[in-house]
């Protein structure tokens, strides 16, 4: 095979806990502490999502608008993004995941972090962990002066994540028939990605993924 890829989900796979809410709170504290009083609105928006009144994508956009702002100057935002990435790497990364990442790198795999979290803060985390590429949810103004609370394209989740992985592979001129892929995730929403892989791993899986992994014969790993 010409290409070796090791594709990792991030939240609760590489990390112990999710990173999105922590990101919102960290940035709000650093940039506009008064926004913390709006946090009950985040809970209400989550309820609206559970009741299927809003989409997962719209939930993320509204939460960002509430806790960070609709339109934030990148130069003001990025120091807080970088400090949050440092915080995640310092205290919210599984040692077992780090060991596997190091082993895949030593075995010649290209390391890819594929996550529904925002590229805005995923890239600084990925850089610190030594990943070669990031596939993540993008902001509409990802490369402009101001960061808007709008998602460009798809939320990198479920079948959308697989589509984005395939699009990235096409952009990198990686033919699937010439690639050997290892994939790691904790959540059943990543079943499409895991099925796409040659060697799928249910990593610290929640119960639905644990059941599916047992049915499909996927390897389970439990990282400390």
TrEMBL record:
SUPFAM superfamilies per record: HAD-like
One Pfam family named in its UniProt record: HAD
Keyword presence, Amino-acid biosynthesis: no
Parts of the chain that traverse the membrane: 32-51
Keyword Transmembrane helix: yes
Keywords for the protein's UniProt record, in alphabetical order: Hydrolase, Magnesium, Membrane, Metal-binding, Transmembrane, Transmembrane helix
Cited InterPro entries: HAD-like_SerB (IPR050582), HAD-like_sf (IPR036412), HAD_hydro_SerB1 (IPR006385), HAD_sf (IPR023214)
Single GO MF annotation: hydrolase activity
Domain of life (superkingdom): Bacteria
PANTHER family: PHOSPHATASE RV3661-RELATED, PHOSPHOSERINE PHOSPHATASE
Name assigned to this protein: Phosphoserine phosphatase
